Amino acid sequence: MSDRSEPVIFDEFDILRRLADDRELVQDVLMAFAGDIGNHLDRMDRAIKDRDLLAIRRIAHTVKGAAANVSADALVAAARMIEAGADQGDWTAITERVMALVAGVERYREVLRNRGWLLPLKEST
């Protein structure tokens, strides 16, 4: 057993196990998350500008749950830190942690692309 000092960016084995090795379902879940996370980050940015601690905490909690569903442990940890910053009313920490979350989302997307999970969004007809 290895000792990890940092959370895993994407635990592919975990999501496959939890979704009964149904690769199509995993793909759908990952694509839904990829489509939704940008909206959450935009809402978080607006809440920072509005100095709305309750909204920050609520959005961070939503992101934490969504990230857990897609086995993105590093994003879960980042969202948890934003929640803690909101609980403390520490705007400096919140702002820094949101920037770290944005960077984490980019790393997550890169890992998904590199592993062949993140495909271009299907065009509507």
Explained architecture:
- The chain is mainly α.
- The chain has a single domain (12-114), classed as Four Helix Bundle (Hemerythrin (Met), subunit A).
- Helix content is 74%, strand content 0%.
- The chain has five helices and no strands.
- Helix 2 (23-50) packs antiparallel against helix 5.
Secondary structure topology:
Blueprint lengths: L11 H7 L4 H28 L2 H17 L3 H16 L2 H24 L11
Helix pairs in contact: 2-3, 2-5, 3-4, 4-5
Outline of the structure:
This protein is an all-alpha fold. It contains five helices and no strands.
Structural class: mainly alpha
By CATH reckoning, the class would read Mainly Alpha
**Beta-strand content bin:** under 5%
Counting structural domains, the number is 1
**Helix content bin:** over 70%
In angstroms, what is the radius of gyration?
15 Å
Shape-level CATH architecture = Up-down Bundle
Tags for this entry?
single chain; 125 residues; mainly alpha; Four Helix Bundle (Hemerythrin (Met), subunit A); elongated; disordered C terminus
